[in-house]
Amino acid sequence: MSTQREITAEAEARAHRDTAELDIPEIARFLQEQFSQRTIAHVAGIEDPKQVGRWIRGLNNPRFDSEFRLRTAFQVFRYIEECENRHVARAWMMGMNPQLEDSSPLQAIADDLFKEVMAAARSYRQGDL
User: Fold this and answer.
1) Can you tell me the distance from the alpha carbon of 19 to that of 5, in angstroms, rounded to the nearest whole number?
2) Residue 5: is its pLDDT beyond 90?
3) What pLDDT is attached to residue 42?
4) Amino acid 59: pLDDT
5) 86 close to 79: Cβ distance less than 8 angstroms
6) Distance (Å, rounded) from C-alpha 50 to C-alpha 56?
7) Hey, is 22 helix, strand or coil?
8) What pLDDT digit, counting tens, does each position of 63-93 carry?
9) Of the residues 14, 22, 105, 126, which has the maximum number of CB atoms within 10 A of its CB?
């Protein structure tokens, strides 16, 4: 029988693997479906939300920093989803988080607080918040 720690480690490993294996059009599409084109543009640090649609259609690729933010948002979302469910993951990503000085994880990713967001996700999973 698996321990809670093993289950959490497996969920984190699956989220990491999914993030590494998917290409940007798939990641951008997934995130846009969960949130919105405008929200994902904000997270990616771009002004034109239509650019997200271009990424989805494979017409061009995001800059490195935008791709990093998209992959981070996807990985954290998948981690929470693996541990809980899609509804909880969406709500968690959008809600104010006391570990992130009441910013949402999505806003914190837009602000380049990648490690802090993952630490908050781990804390949430462990029941600390």
Assistant:
1) 21
2) no
3) 98
4) 96
5) no
6) 10
7) coil
8) 999 999 999 999 999 999 998 999 999 999 9
9) 105
Token readout for 57 is 């259609």
Per-residue model confidence (pLDDT) at position 1: 58
58: alpha, beta or left? (left if phi > 0; alpha if psi -120 to 50): left
Residue 4 confidence (pLDDT) above 90:
no
Q: Which two tokens stand for residue 60?
A: 């061009």
From residue 62, alpha-carbon distances to 69, 73, 91, 93, 103 in Å are 10, 14, 26, 22, 25
| Angle, alpha carbons 71-126-78 (nearest 5°) | 25
pLDDT above 90 as % of the chain: 79
State the residue for tokens 């959490």: 8
Tokens of 86: 């899609």
DSSP character string of 23-71: -HHHHHHHHHHHS-HHHHHHHHT-S-THHHHHHHTTSS---HHHHHHHH
CA distance 30 to 28: 5
Question: What mean pLDDT is reported for the chain?
Answer: 93
